[in-house]
Design a protein that fits this description.
Radius of gyration: 17 Å
Structural class: mainly beta
Helix content: under 10%
Shape: globular
Order of helices and strands: EHEEEEEEEEEEEE
Number of helices: 1
Largest sheet: 9 strands, parallel
Length: about 190
């Protein structure tokens, strides 16, 4: 309605963590340094991980209050994947979404998720939705979610050329997942 200038000020936080691994614990902090002594929280680690880095999750239960989203554009590369995995190969890190209104959403490309569990999303909310391409899921278990446990698909409003492709799902289990109407989830 008018052409008066609009001036806004924004603060941008940009962090870089050196080294090949970022350490995360259920009680890690956004102010952590990504080390074993000063671990990060999961959201910060995902936000600031760079191609080639590995996010090492301490085994245990991560009580999620919000969605865990790997945003579009938060990508690894074919030669430098970003890896999110439990630090102990014999155990899993468990993402419990019983206190959240969303689950785990992977929009990024060239990520590897390994030895994690995704559980207890609310009704009509998928456990893990993969929207990105060239991702690898290994030993990811999805159970007791309020909709599909693991789903690889695009959004209905996007053309098929924008849908995910070239994802590998291996040694994963999806069970006990069911939407409230009991007609939209398997396992």
């Amino acid at each position: 309605k008018n052409y008066k200038p609009v001036i806004q000020t924004f603060s941008i936080i940009s962090k870089t963590y050196s080294g090949s691994s970022l350490y995360v614990t259920p009680d890690g902090s956004t102010f952590g340094k990504g080390t074993k002594k000063e671990p990060l929280d999961i959201v910060s680690a995902i936000s600031y991980a760079k191609p080639g880095q590995t996010i090492l999750l301490e085994p245990g239960t991560y009580m999620m209050k919000n969605v865990v989203r790997i945003e579009k554009g938060n990508d690894g590369t074919a030669k430098k994947r970003i890896t999110l995995k439990c630090s102990d190969k014999a155990k899993h890190a468990v993402f419990d979404f019983s206190g959240a209104k969303a689950g785990f959403e992977l929009y990024g490309n060239y990520w590897t998720l390994e030895n994690i569990d995704i559980t207890k999303t609310i009704g009509d909310v998928k456990g893990l939705q993969v929207y990105g391409s060239y991702n690898i899921l290994t030993n990811v278990d999805a159970y007791e979610n309020g909709d599909t446990g693991i789903q690889v698909s695009g959004r209905s409003m996007d053309p098929s050329t924008k849908w995910p492709h070239d994802n590998l799902v291996q040694f994963c289990e999806s069970f006990g997942n069911c939407d409230p109407a009991q007609n939209n989830a398997d396992g």
